Amino acid sequence: MIDFSAFNDALGIMFTSAGSWGWIVPGLVVGLVFSAIPGISITMAMAIVLPMSLYMDFFSAIVFLTSVYTGAGFGGSVPAILMNIPGSPSSFATTFDGYAMSQKGEHNEALGYALFASTLCGIAGYVLLLLVIEPLADIVLRIGPVEMFAVAIWGMMLLGSLGSAYISRGLFAAALGILLGTVGMNTAGFTRGTMGLPVLLDGIAPIPAMIGLLAASQLLSLASRDYIIEAEGSREVSLRKILKGCWGTMKYPGVLLRGSIIGIIIGAVPGVGSSIGNLIAYAETKRTAKDSATFGKGNPKGVIAAESAVASGEGGSMATMLALGIPGGGATAILIAAFMMHNIVPGPSFIETQKPMVYAIILNNIVQAVVLLAVGIGFIYVASNIMKVRTRYVLPAILVIATLGTFAVTGEAAGPITLFVFALLGYALNRYQYPVSAVVVGILLGRMLETEFLRSYQLSGGNPLYILERPGAMAIFAVMFASLAMTAWGKRKQNRAEAAEALAMEKLRDEAAAHAAHTTPSKG
């Protein structure tokens, strides 16, 4: 729980370092802009501004870098909603319903839902971090490869909610994604699918591949239009509608809570990242929703679920970094570098000896999440004007930016080449109605699934009963099986209800036909 003496000292640090607060807005703007550009990751944005922090005092540097982190968590949802192109992998699930809302002229509301979910769940994630940072460190230390394998299996279960109308095509797309995700050298030293190319030894770069898969069909479909949204009246940028979307988020407290819990748990696991958390949150929200059939067609709950997990996942990643000195991902690795540049090493000793500073960092992150609401609304208002620009100008710009972004990710021509190859693959998959989303999930999880399985096998010595010694993994598998059972039961109940409704409608039609025949006067 909270050490109130250290908490009071943390408030003192914040108020005596009031000048540090001036770095919040610039940091948020940097994060929003960079993450909204396809191919430019959060890690890259923070790496670019890291040298600036060397000339600041420690608290100001951390405030600036964590502000970039907070802004980037939301920024990727803007192109995901407006153009169906996620600015970062963590915004992937946001495209499912966000873009569908945009095509119905509800882009203002969709962006409002995403922003307010990010704000509320960002605050919730850091408040929970404030309460449990010390005991959470012990829990994270107990997470092993078996638990990670269970999380990967849980992620693969998402493919059931991302499939196409043809089950066989959905399964094929999933298998293709996993196969592509395991290209390269695995932890056992075996090399697969590299075709003799050294660049593939580390596997296929996921960000260029994802942009190619998701952007290809979208850019081709938009090329035939004059504007991204064809109806002129639906292209307006309305502050009132953005605020309406923000306020509408409060109608779904259960979705926010579920997304926050999943985001914090997944975010705290080193190396997993928010790209998995937002997929799991989306799938679980869809599974438990009574209107699950409307997901993917513009259901606001889909946007809220995805963004709530991304925002709260930031708190989980920060917990791992502060409590253990272990980066939850590339962005928190940059934060650790900033700590070390100021001769401070995060971890158990940092929490023990400088608890007021730890609390001050967390409290400032809560302030950042609040400020994000105002800065984010301004950013949305500016970014949404892309709807008023003709596609003949927008599409080439997006293609150039995406190509440069993929080059920046890999540092060589392999990035743009990967983008081009997967753009063709994405076009072919869409052409023959194979779900591209299933391929993306397979690429994101394929390597993790194999690596954690091999580690689990080595630890257990090939004994499947080893799982009985891992209560955490058993709990995850139990939740998954319960979810499957509930989903099957819910679908069966829904099918029965639909069959009964169809029978009742047929009966009404028969009665109406009989009544019409009875009341029609005979001729002659």
TrEMBL record:
The domain of life for this entry's organism is Bacteria
Which Pfam families is this protein grouped with? TctA (PF01970)
Q: Which organism is it from?
A: Ancylobacter polymorphus
Q: Which of UniProt's keywords are assigned here? A: Membrane, Transmembrane, Transmembrane helix
Q: Which residues form the DUF112 domain?
A: 23-440
Membrane-crossing segments per the record: 20-50, 62-82, 110-132, 139-160, 166-185, 197-216, 260-282, 322-345, 357-381, 393-426, 471-490
Provide the protein name: Tripartite tricarboxylate transporter permease
Q: Which InterPro entries match?
A: DUF112_TM
Q: Which PANTHER family does the protein's record reference?
A: TRICARBOXYLIC TRANSPORT PROTEIN (PTHR35342:SF5)
